Amino acid sequence: MFILSPGADPLSDVAALAEEVGFTGNKFKYFSLGQGMEKEASQLVETSATRGHWLMLMNCHLLIKWLKTSLEKSLEKFDKPHKDFRLWLTTQSDPNFPLGILQKSLKIVTEPPDGLQLNC
Question: Where do the domains of the chain lie, and which CATH numbers do they carry?
Answer without folding.
Answer: 2-109 (3.40.50.300)
